[in-house]
Design a protein that fits this description.
Layout lengths: L2 H22 L14 E3 L16 E3 L2 E3 L3 E3 L7 H17 L2 E3 L4 H5 L18 E6 L9 H11 L3 E5 L2 H6 L10 H11 L4 E4 L7 H10 L3 E3 L8 H7 L4 H9 L7 H11 L5 E4 L5 H10 L3 E4 L1 H7 L3 H22 L4 H5 L4 E3 L2
Parallel strand pairs: 4-5, 4-11, 5-6, 6-7, 7-8, 8-9, 9-10, 10-11
Antiparallel strand pairs: 1-12, 2-3
């Protein structure tokens, strides 16, 4: 009878560790980059635009966004995580940007911490994403658990994060990924909200994206390599030398974000596509969108700001919006649609 309590305590402790490690340790990729640095916009010194007329609003999964931004999935399940999510949600509401929460497995195992995820009261109009690990579908999770996490958040969609490398390195990780695609497919057609497939920092290839889309996934979040390395994060939590060695060996494993965007867009021109993985400012966001993404997600910058104050989160949102707007103005594009089709982004040879 004690097993569920022990598991939930371990999960909650892991959540606290992840926040601390991401804020205090160097867990960024060392050698691999997100690939966005290989591109440059052609500057227009005569944009023939009034800066005040630039519109960076968009729609994603049928919902209006004030800017093409997603506060990427990060945390929940602890008192500190609840405070972070509240600050993020209130800023998301003010700027009408999308938001995801961290894995809600802990809220299924320990319902008393569900409130740390329940941010709809702070963000009544925001595009909100619930979140579970896809591999949990092989560990007795099914439609009921997915419905539960969607209900906790009153979410507009469910993210299924796919993280084989992290599970390999994590202590007691869940590594049975056999037959998972079929279970994802069944869930996509049973769940009343769209399902988004997301990696956690190692990227989704075009071949896997094609399979996921065929299975019924409504959107893809590439979550490419080049930002936070969850191999390094789990190495910091290692309980033995083997885990520590694995985390260091695979610190730079994965597909760069830019490569994921371009290759997926080539085989799926219309799939709703989120760019994330190592994006750190609005120029990265604009570059990702010009490459073919619809919106862009950032995690580490928002986590660092939210750990300080809600004001710091708002200031970050203001800067990101100003940076995206500046790219449009200095390339002579009034809208994100125009930016995508302008040909102003060039690969640097």
């Amino acid at each position: 009878m004690n097993a569920p309590t022990n598991i939930s305590a371990q999960t909650q402790s892991r959540k606290a560790d992840h926040i601390r490690i991401c804020l205090e340790e160097d867990v960024q990729c060392d050698q691999i980059t997100n690939g966005l640095q290989r591109y440059r916009f052609t500057h227009s010194c005569l944009p023939e635009l009034n800066h005040n007329d630039i519109d960076i609003s968009t729609t994603f999964l049928g919902k209006h966004l004030g800017a093409p931004l997603l506060i990427s999935s990060m945390t929940g399940g602890t008192e500190q995580a609840g405070m972070i999510n509240q600050r993020l949600a209130q800023v998301a509401q003010h700027y009408k940007i999308a938001m995801g929460v961290g894995s809600q497995r802990v809220a299924v195992e320990k319902p008393q911490v569900a409130d740390s995820f329940a941010v709809r009261k702070y963000a009544p109009d925001v595009l909100l994403f619930a979140n579970l690990g896809a591999v949990q579908l092989n560990y007795k999770y099914g439609l009921d658990e997915c419905l539960r996490v969607v209900d906790i958040l009153e979410a507009d969609a469910l993210i299924l994060h796919i993280n084989p490398l992290q599970e390999c390195i994590q202590s007691k990780g869940d590594t049975n990924f056999r037959g998972l695609l079929d279970k994802i497919s069944k869930l996509c057609f049973a769940l009343p909200v769209p399902v988004i497939a997301k990696e956690v920092g190692n990227g989704i290839s075009a071949a896997i994206a094609e399979k996921l889309i065929a299975a019924g996934v409504a959107a893809i979040d590439v979550a490419g390599a080049g930002g936070t390395s969850w191999a390094k994060v789990e190495s910091e939590r290692a309980e033995n030398p083997l885990q520590r060695r694995l985390g260091r060996t695979f610190a730079d494993w994965g597909l760069p974000t830019a490569e994921c965007i371009t290759t997926i867009r080539a085989i799926a021109p219309d799939v709703p596509l989120i760019a994330s993985g190592g994006l750190r400012h609005g120029l990265d966001v604009a570059t990702a969108i010009a490459l073919g993404a619809d919106i862009a997600g950032l995690a580490m910058p928002f986590l660092q700001a939210a750990a300080i104050s809600q004001t710091a989160v708002a200031e970050l949102a203001e800067v990101l919006i100003a940076e995206i707007t500046t790219v449009l103005f200095c390339t002579g594009n009034a809208t994100l649609y125009q930016l995508k089709h302008s040909g102003s982004l060039q690969r640097i040879e």
